[in-house]
Specification:
mainly beta; three-stranded antiparallel sheet; 6% helix
Amino acid sequence: MVTQVHALKRLRPRVMLLLDHDKTALDSFHELDLSALQEGAPDELEEDSLTVKCGLPAGAYGIQPSELFLD
């Protein structure tokens, strides 16, 4: 879930990771600033591997922002 958009790097926002790669809810949420990723990061965090590809409609994957106190 996008929590902050950077003016110059709109496709590399600050995001809150809510689901794992299987779309299963994480036990605890993690915040990640995609604009701060650098080359040479671990393979799962390579600079080109994490970008916003598209938006999802409200309620996608059963996530309700109002229930998470993030909206």
